[in-house]
Automatic annotation (TrEMBL):
Domain of life assignment: Bacteria
Pfam families in alphabetical order: HEAT_2
InterPro entries attached to this UniProt entry: ARM-like, ARM-type_fold
Signal peptide: none
UniProt xrefs under SUPFAM superfamilies: ARM repeat (SSF48371)
Name listed for the protein in its UniProt record: HEAT repeat domain-containing protein
Length: 447
């Protein structure tokens, strides 16, 4: 028997489920995804799961097809949202995003912005839209104004009537060569940080100033701190430890901040300072103390904030997590307990005990706290909770369903989240597709 005939017999004997393989665009599942026949796709995936033969690679190919369809067929009032839904996997979907740019609307501009961030669209190409008549595309153009020769155009964009364009100009300023920054740019950024009507633009202006750095910038930041709102102060607090600010006078206000302040800005500043070994030991010590103190006895909001960003490498912070975990348990504050135990998964001596506690919490109910516990366990590859996570795929809460897809990806079982590719909610379909695509970047066990 020839090898060709033998291969033909083998193919004829394969099940329909295995026809979902990469590149097999004519398979029933692929056709269902391509035509948006979600009922048929749901049935095909269910068949594959019953036989246990849908691999991660096959699910990823299916996810690509679903994502492409959602981006290209979204109604006008949801088109921008659908493009944003694939932000995490923009590089893998660059072809469809490039095609979406051909439609000169807000969604096309969003696709262009994502391609810039993924490195697939060059700033030179972006600059060609600087003079566009629409805000969204003019923002794409402003995003590319990072060269020295673009300084005047960048400053003009900072005063544009559209907040989107102004934000893009701030981003371009932050990414420009700081040694090319002029006094005029520093002055204008400081003015924007003080008076722009949009809070996010004011904070972006502070971040741009921090990237420029130098003594003059430090002076401007000190002035802005006096009358700045919470958002601006938080951005300034982080700026004090940035290299070009810290080295030119930022150390003194950073020292005072972590020694005497509290709240979101101080927490962010302390986390940044505690992570940088080049920061003065005395400042780092105060930063660690602030974080540990906040984790144990701050306001509930501040405790959760500090828990999410505090570096685990510091012994005092690890001890604070241990105390917070016990206090949360005794006080029946499940969110606090789960947040602390989730971080203790990263501490070798505490990991086994944290897994035990989180297993109990993960199995208690179907609420969001249990989902958080399951997600934490999935992040460390704890396969014993896979069945609970798969149960979440049918939850009424869309957030819970999407968390399940992400957790299955973390476990190396991304294909088990494939039912969400046929979800009734287009946002869930698109985000789940992106989750499966992102999971494919990591070598995982097919199941």
């Amino acid at each position: 028997m020839s090898e060709k005939v033998r291969a033909g017999w083998h193919f004829a004997g394969m099940t329909a489920v295995l026809a979902i393989v990469a590149g097999c665009g004519g398979s029933p599942a692929m056709r269902a995804a391509e035509h948006g026949d979600w009922a048929a796709l749901r049935a095909r995936i269910a068949d594959a799961h019953r036989t246990g033969k849908l691999t991660n690679a096959e699910a990823t190919d299916l996810a690509r097809k679903v994502a492409r369809r959602e981006i290209t067929t979204a109604p006008a009032n949801r088109a921008v949202a659908r493009v944003r839904d694939v932000g995490g996997c923009a590089r893998e979907l660059d072809g469809v995003l490039a095609s979406r740019m051909d439609t000169h609307d807000d969604a096309g501009a969003e696709a262009a912005w994502m391609r810039i961030d993924s490195g697939e669209l060059g700033l030179g190409s972006a600059r060609s839209y600087t003079g566009d008549t629409t805000d969204a595309w003019r923002a794409v153009g402003a995003r590319g104004l990072s060269r020295k020769k673009d300084t005047q155009a960048r400053l003009a964009a900072m005063g544009d009537g559209s907040p989107r364009v102004r934000r893009a100009a701030m981003r371009a300023s932050a990414e420009a060569d700081p040694d090319d920054a002029t006094d005029a740019e520093v002055e204008l950024l400081a003015t924007v940080a003080r008076v722009d009507p949009e809070g996010i633009v004011r904070s972006d202006a502070v971040r741009a100033l921090a990237s420029i750095g130098g003594e003059k910038v430090v002076g401007k930041l000190r002035d802005l701190w006096t009358n700045g709102d919470d958002g601006v102060r938080e951005a300034i607090a982080v700026a004090w430890s940035s290299p070009r600010v810290y080295a030119h006078g930022g150390a003194a206000p950073l020292r005072l901040l972590v020694a005497a302040e509290h709240g979101p800005g101080a927490i962010e500043a302390a986390s940044a300072a505690a992570r940088r070994k080049e920061i003065d030991p005395g400042i780092r010590s105060s930063a660690v103390a602030l974080l540990a103190r906040t984790i144990v006895s701050g306001s509930r909001r501040d405790r959760l904030h500090a828990m999410s960003i505090a570096p685990l490498a510091e012994p005092d912070i690890v001890e604070a997590f241990r105390k917070a975990a016990k206090d949360g348990s005794r006080g029946s504050d499940r969110e606090m307990e789960i947040a602390a135990q989730s971080r203790l998964l990263g501490s070798g001596p505490d990991r086994a005990a944290a897994i035990q506690v989180l297993e109990v919490r993960a199995g208690e109910d179907t609420g969001r706290m249990a989902v958080n516990a399951r997600s934490a366990l999935a992040s460390v590859g704890h396969l014993r909770i896979q069945a609970w996570i798969e149960r979440d795929l049918t939850a009424q809460d869309a957030w819970v369903r999407l968390q399940a897809a992400a957790s299955l990806g973390a476990l190396g079982r991304a294909a088990r989240g494939a039912p969400l590719l046929a979800d009734a909610d287009p946002e869930v379909r698109t985000r789940a597709a992106c989750t499966l695509i992102m999971a494919s970047r990591i070598k995982s066990t097919n199941r």
